[in-house]
Specification:
The complex is a heterodimer of chains A (about 260) and B (about 290). Chain A has about 260 residues and is mainly α. Helix content of chain A is about 70%, strand content about 5%. Chain B is globular, with a radius of gyration of 23 Å. The chains are: A mainly alpha (about 260), B mainly alpha (about 290).
Chain lengths: ~260, ~290
């Protein structure tokens, strides 16, 4: 005869586990939200900067330039990661939260660095400039001091910055998001340059620079053997970004609007 | 660009993919050999396991334990749990089904989560360092089949309790165990209906009623749990009570199938009991007629 008591014990412990897991899930969600809110200021300053052309950015000093702010941000990031590490819950839950957070952080680093590099390269651009040449890769992150080194921050630079090795999966996902943003930024810049009478037309060269950069990234991505996952799906969108920016360059050059040479090396 | 970003990334991705492929292969083995254990369990009559059946079960148990040890080790140190958990969970559910079922057939009891974990720990301990310690495996199988380790098929001196060191098992959670219980009920239904009549004595097998009671009370507890947590669902081995359409529907469907199994047993038991009465009546009246002539 079956004994109902044995079920009661088993189910009592199941109920307990459900409650416990709910509790730790809630705590983790709270922590996740607080981590994301900690980088919200940084995110908003980067997003705001995306609304301006490189020359405007240089003149208005909207982008972060202060090394102290960067230091603060870094220590806040390190603290956030330590808090996440200490959180008591299943490893798989923690891991999900970690990757989500890291992808966001890497993405912000990449966009920030990209814009900093553009500002630095376009600061001397005027109607008499004949060529804009920009480095493709940055080996270390710009801190508000010195000069940025290139458009795309490499993983090693991020590792050194936050003291942990970033997951390539997170990095590549963030990189693909950067590509989307670059296309968006290109169209936005063209609009702003076109409608403003005081703008410097030579900024149209940004499209050529971005086209070359995305082309190089696409070539790089072709080195990867991707399987059917999130990364693969995002990568599939890359060709459309490239197509879009090629179209923009074609349209501009057809009308002879790109007057100076651009080069990414 | 290639040297700084994409070539190291490529190496990283290829390594992660290879690990995942190996894990999926191991998981397929766990599923396949667990199914074989289920078939062996269906062959058990009147809680008796003879030497040849024990040998059969042991062969499959050995392979399952080897793969489980490999999967657990790989899973414990993997940085990509999220992409692995699905495959691992499916394999583990099948294994939980096999173990709870064979335990039920032998003892008429539900294998508790704690005991399941003890058996798993023993199985993994038996493969420590990649070398099989068959004595520990005999011990684990004895706990699973007979609850006790003395007076079984294998002599006591050929068995060994696993060491006390803590083995981290992250591949199975209580939520996986719970989902595995639904599959267990399907097997119990099949087993009950196959063995409803005792063909030797030609009467209704009394254990049919025990199975029926077991299923009924388990159904009561499971449906009670789902009533208490109407949005309960299991996502990658984690309990969740926040609404998730697909996940909730999966558990509801499983509960429905469980109910169908209970109904099937009930109906068959009822039919067989009525007919048995008729047979007794027929036999008696036939005997009377023989006497009269």
């Amino acid at each position: 005869m079956s004994n109902p008591v044995q079920f009661q014990d088993a189910f009592a412990s199941i109920k307990k586990e459900i409650e416990l897991e709910n509790e730790s899930k809630e705590k983790l969600q709270e922590l996740e939200a607080s981590l994301l809110s900690r980088i919200a200021d940084y995110k908003s300053s980067v997003n705001n900067a995306l609304l301006y052309t490189p020359v405007e950015l240089f003149k208005s000093k909207i982008l972060l330039q202060d090394s102290e702010v960067y230091e603060k941000l870094n220590s806040s990031l390190k603290q956030s990661l330590a808090e996440l590490e200490e959180q008591e819950c299943k490893r798989i839950m923690k891991e999900r939260a970690y990757h989500k957070f890291m992808e966001e952080v890497i993405y912000l680093f990449l966009v920030d660095n990209y814009l900093q590099q553009l500002v630095s390269s376009f600061k001397d651009v005027d109607d008499s400039t004949s060529k804009v040449s920009i480095g493709a890769l940055a080996n270390s992150r710009y801190h508000g001091v010195g000069e940025p080194q290139g458009l795309v921050l490499i993983p090693k630079a991020i590792n050194e910055e936050i003291g942990i090795d970033v997951d390539y999966n997170d990095y590549l996902l963030a990189l693909l998001r950067l590509v989307d943003i670059i296309v968006e930024y290109t169209t936005n810049t063209i609009i702003r340059v076109s409608i403003s009478s005081s703008s410097i037309d030579t900024q149209y060269v940004l499209t050529v620079i971005n086209q070359q950069l995305i082309g190089q990234l696409q070539q790089g991505f072709q080195n990867l053997d991707l399987k059917n996952d999130n990364l693969r799906r995002k990568f599939d969108g890359l060709k459309y970004s490239y197509k879009k920016i090629n179209g923009i360059v074609y349209d501009l050059s057809l009308r002879n609007l790109i007057k100076i040479e651009g080069d990414v090396n | 660009m290639e040297d700084n970003i994409f070539l190291p990334a490529r190496q990283f991705l290829v390594k992660a993919q290879d690990e995942r492929e190996k894990l999926i292969r191991d998981c397929r083995d766990i599923t396949a050999y667990s199914k074989k254990i289920i078939f062996s369990a269906h062959r058990i009559k009147q809680n008796k396991v003879d030497k040849s059946l024990y040998k059969q079960i042991m062969e499959n148990f050995k392979i399952v334990s080897e793969r489980i040890a490999a999967v657990n080790e790989q899973y414990n140190c993997s940085p990509q749990l999220d992409s692995l958990k699905g495959s691992v969970s499916n394999a583990c559910e099948e294994m939980i089904e096999a173990f709870t079922f064979i335990y039920y057939v032998m003892t008429k009891k539900l294998l508790s989560y704690e005991k399941l974990m003890y058996i798993l720990r023993s199985m993994i301990a038996a493969w420590e360092g990649g070398i099989l310690n068959i004595a520990i495996l005999h011990h684990a199988l004895d706990v699973l089949l007979f609850e006790v380790v003395s007076n079984t098929i294998i002599a006591l001196e050929e068995k060994e309790e696993p060491g006390k060191e803590d083995i981290e098992i992250s591949i199975i959670s209580q939520a996986d165990y719970f989902v595995g219980l639904f599959d267990l009920t399907g097997e119990i239904m099949r087993y009950t209906i196959t063995n409803l009549r005792d063909y030797q004595s030609e009467v209704v097998n009394p254990s049919g009623f025990e199975h029926f009671l077991f299923m009924k009370s388990l159904y009561f507890e499971v449906s009670d749990l789902l009533d208490r947590y109407p949005n309960l669902n299991v996502n990658k081995g984690i309990w969740s009570t926040s609404y998730n359409g697909k996940g909730v529907a999966v558990l509801r469907k499983k509960l429905e199938v469980f109910k169908e199994s209970v109904d099937k047993i009930e109906q068959s038991l009822c039919d067989v009991l009525i007919r048995a009465k008729e047979e007794i009546y027929l036999r008696e009246s036939l005997a009377e007629r023989v006497e009269m002539t």
